[in-house]
């Protein structure tokens, strides 16, 4: 083997030592390559990012921040973290960045830790209307330890009801107002939220986990100038390692840094921090900006194609990378649609739609996203094919992989995946 610092790519050694896990890595790659990946929160990070993730930086303890660590031997990881911080600030035009959160949920914990005491009042988007578990769901620490009121979407527009946000803010006087979620197809009016937060003296927090990649690619407006703090994941549209980060105004920097470490986390994962640095550099390139625009154009085309086939995108369409699809007109539940698509080689997830009459684990909708297929190079003509196969899988199959139509669809999917391969050899 050549003298490379990246032993993570030594697959043959792994195979010799542990054929079981090597087999899982191999079959997962085969799975990704042979189906349509339409989970809106997933993407295919680059070999450069994966290389940094598989590096020896994984070994290093580096509690603290660059130049002020609790361990010796941090000279090299200090460089990696400082580069990641500098690039993150530049990419988002932010005053301060913390690149240590282990995930989106960890970044969110830091915000609660920085600004709130248990029992404090917050205002966030309701989970069944598109929010996130960490925004006050009862099964999450956030809903157990904080008193979180929820706004939703308007019944007619299915978009955020800003009048309700203002009314609830005036009524509850929350310490923090939270915007963002996991199933919001439309742009968020950050100025409206800022004005409401200012009126009631609240911190304005944006959880940009889903759409931050579109911001990095300059394809949609940024929340950074408006928000006190913006948390995000780095593995969704952004296309970096599975992790999280936050950016904030300088006035909140010390508070948030202390909340990430030592309040909520121990040692940072320095291999992941290095991988985030690589990802931020990728995001600064012109081809990433084109990618972000293509992701949206593809999502809009896919949503339009499904609308033509009686699978209705809520809000009438999308401004982002995802569409939330109402299946009530075709009379199939979200759970059945997910299973039928899965048997046909199409990976997506069931999702509640606003005012959903079904229980959450059944749901009346599915969520689709274009980050992965766009990374594979698919464009508008392929979105028309995908709309057709989703519609056929949902309405003409029964979840049995041996169903004749399911087999036909899998052949079409295989053709797409051969022409636009994930991780081309
Ligand atoms: C994905 C997501 C998260 C959580 O990210 P993890 O990395 O899975 O912890 C938090 N908030 C929103 C809005 C998300 O979409």
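Sequence proposed for the structure above (425 residues):
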């Amino acid at each position: 083997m050549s003298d490379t610092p990246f032993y993570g790519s030594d697959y043959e050694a792994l195979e010799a030592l542990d054929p079981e896990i090597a087999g899982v890595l191999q079959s997962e790659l085969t799975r990704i390559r042979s189906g349509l990946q339409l989970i809106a929160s997933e993407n295919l990070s680059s070999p450069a990012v994966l290389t940094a993730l598989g590096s020896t930086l994984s070994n290093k303890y580096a509690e603290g921040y660059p130049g002020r660590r609790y361990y010796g031997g941090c000279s090299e990881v200090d460089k990696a973290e400082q580069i990641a911080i500098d690039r993150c600030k530049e990419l988002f035009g932010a005053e301060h960045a913390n690149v240590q959160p282990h995930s989106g949920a960890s970044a969110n914990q830091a915000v609660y830790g920085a600004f709130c005491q248990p029992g404090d009042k917050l205002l966030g988007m309701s989970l069944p209307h598109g929010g996130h578990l960490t925004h006050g769901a009862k099964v999450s620490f956030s809903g157990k330890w904080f008193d979180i009121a929820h706004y939703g979407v308007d019944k007619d527009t299915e978009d955020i009801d800003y009048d309700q946000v203002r009314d609830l803010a005036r009524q509850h006087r929350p310490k923090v107002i939270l915007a963002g979620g996991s199933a919001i197809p439309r742009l968020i009016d950050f100025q409206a939220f800022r004005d409401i937060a200012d009126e009631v003296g609240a911190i304005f927090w944006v959880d940009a986990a889903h759409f931050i990649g579109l911001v990095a690619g300059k394809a949609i407006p940024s929340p950074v100038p408006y928000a006190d703090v913006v948390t995000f994941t780095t593995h969704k549209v952004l296309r970096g390692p599975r992790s999280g980060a936050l950016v904030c105004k300088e006035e909140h920097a010390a508070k948030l840094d202390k909340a990430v470490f030592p309040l909520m986390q121990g040692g940072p994962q320095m291999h992941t921090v290095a991988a985030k640095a690589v990802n931020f550099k990728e995001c600064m390139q012109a081809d990433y900006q084109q990618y972000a625009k293509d992701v949206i154009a593809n999502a809009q085309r896919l949503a339009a194609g499904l609308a033509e086939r009686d699978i209705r995108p809520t809000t009438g369409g999308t401004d982002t990378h995802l569409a939330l699809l109402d299946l009530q007109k075709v009379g199939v539940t979200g759970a059945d649609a997910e299973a039928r698509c899965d048997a046909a080689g199409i990976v997506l997830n069931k999702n509640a739609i606003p005012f959903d009459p079904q229980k959450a684990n059944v749901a009346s909708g599915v969520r689709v996203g274009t980050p992965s297929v766009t990374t594979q190079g698919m464009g508008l003509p392929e979105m028309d094919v995908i709309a057709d196969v989703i519609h056929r899988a949902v309405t003409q199959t029964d979840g049995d992989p041996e169903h004749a139509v399911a087999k036909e669809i899998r052949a079409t999917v295989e053709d797409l995946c051969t022409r636009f391969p994930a991780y081309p050899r």
